[in-house]
Each structure stands twice: as C-alpha cells, then as structure tokens.
Amino acid sequence: MGRPAKGRATTNAAPTIILVRPQLGENIGMAARAMLNCGLSSLRLVAPRDGWPNPKAERAASGADVVLDKAKVFDTVEAAVADMGRVVATTARNRELSQRIVTPRRAAAEIRSWTAEGDKVGVLFGPERTGLTNDDMVQADTALSIPLNPQFSSLNIAQAVLLVAYEWAMAGEEAPAERMSDHSTRPATKDELQNLFDHLERALDQSGFLRHKAMRPAMVNNLRALLQRTAMTEQEVRSFHGVIKFLSKRKHDEE
C-alpha cells in the first residue's frame, strides 16, 4: 500500500486542541487524524512523554501531516493557554472544583459562537491514564464532560478528541440531515408516479385483484398512498413498470 494522501484543514475559525502530557505517539497521531476528519488543524502538546517529533505519531496520523507539522510544544498548561481567550477542559470525573460543566454538544455551540466573535479557544485533553489534574482544570473557564455509560466511561484520548471535534463540526454543518446517495438517479416526478400507478391499476384490474366494487376505492387509494410514500427515483419507476409488464405478460402466456 502507498503512503496515505495528505489532508487539508477546512476552516480557519476553529478551536485549538491541546493534549496535556500525552503518553503514546500513536495516540497523538490518531488524535491528529480525528481532528483533520472534522476540519481542525491547530494542535498543541504539553510535555509529551516520549518527546517531539515522534515517528509513531506520524504513522498513526494516516496523512494528517498538516496537523503534526504545525503542532506546537509547551512545557506547561499555563504556557499552552496563555494566548487563549477561552479554554474548555475535558473531564470524566466529578472534582472538588466548582466549575460550569457542559456536554460536548453545548460546548461545540459555544465554541462556534466564541470563535465567530474572534476569541481564540483551546480544548484541553488530559493524559491517557489519569486525565487532567485540578491544577490543569483551573486553567479553564468551562469543563466538558462526555455523557457515557457510568459503569464504563473510559475513552482513549483520540476517541475523546474525535467526539468533541465531531460535535464542533456538526454545530456548523449546513448539509441536509437526509439525502439520496450520489449514485442514485433523480427523484421521480408526480406525473411519473401517476403513470406508474395507472399502469399498476390496469394490471390489477386485468388480474381480477380489484374485482370487489365496494372495496375497490379504498384499495386503490391505499396503493396510491403507498407509492407516494416510497420516494421512488426515476430509475426505480422504470424498473417497476418493467416488473408489472413482465408479470402481466406471464399471466397472459399461462392463460
């Protein structure tokens, strides 16, 4: 297999992801990959255990070079957030600190608002084994907690980054919540659906299915409503015409 294609960030008005004392290069690389999947490219590292740069991070990033190449390294959390206007810290545990705690979705909406106003925003993620300490948490004005199974809420750091980054990306998503796949033909018009139903109704009449005059209006309307609900494509309508024609011809041949 060849080297993965290099990705590019999709926006400038975005938060900075700050990994505090990350332990494994692979996790840094996977976090970078998750960031770029969601359009983020600004990464800061606080005292990475195995130093920086890290070859294992590059391999795990799978082409997210733009994130790793621009990553900045700091000795302390204080230094890493010094130029930030807003800081959000992720936590999985209740702490002694009195802090405002929000969900990733709420945080994402607020980060969108802050960055739109020109604020620099940082999101802190703690080391894999211990998470952020109280000394780290006090550098933030907002805490973020991911609501998961209370009996098993442990996340890999890259998973946590992906969840938060995804919510940030979706907070600004303008694509429709539902669409047809790209390879599909256009939706069928009402006229095409009417022609299909007329074809089906003729075939049903010929087969004797609609022979009960009292029940016929309700059966016809139910079938018509069924076809309207299917959201058929132009290609599907043509295929259905073919099915009706084949079944009608076969019945005629058998007779």
Automatic annotation (TrEMBL):
Keywords for the protein's UniProt record, in alphabetical order: Cytoplasm, Methyltransferase, S-adenosyl-L-methionine, Transferase, tRNA processing
Coiled coil: none
SUPFAM superfamilies per UniProt: alpha/beta knot
Superkingdom classification of source: Bacteria
GO BP term (any one): tRNA nucleoside ribose methylation
Stretches assigned to the tRNA/rRNA methyltransferase SpoU type domain: 16-166
Catalytic activity from the UniProt record: cytidine(32) in tRNA + S-adenosyl-L-methionine = 2'-O-methylcytidine(32) in tRNA + S-adenosyl-L-homocysteine + H(+); uridine(32) in tRNA + S-adenosyl-L-methionine = 2'-O-methyluridine(32) in tRNA + S-adenosyl-L-homocysteine + H(+)
GO terms assigned for molecular function: RNA binding; tRNA (cytidine(32)-2'-O)-methyltransferase activity; tRNA (cytidine(32)/uridine(32)-2'-O)-methyltransferase activity
Listed EC numbers: 2.1.1.200
Family matches, as InterPro entries: Alpha/beta_knot_MTases, RNA_MeTrfase_TrmJ/LasT, SpoU_MeTrfase, tRNA_m1G_MTases_N
GO CC, any one term: cytosol
Compartment(s): Cytoplasm
UniProt similarity note: Belongs to the class IV-like SAM-binding methyltransferase superfamily. RNA methyltransferase TrmH family.
Assembly with partners or alone: Homodimer.
Function: Catalyzes the formation of 2'O-methylated cytidine (Cm32) or 2'O-methylated uridine (Um32) at position 32 in tRNA.
Full protein name: tRNA (cytidine/uridine-2'-O-)-methyltransferase TrmJ
Lineage: Bacteria, Pseudomonadati, Pseudomonadota, Alphaproteobacteria, Hyphomicrobiales
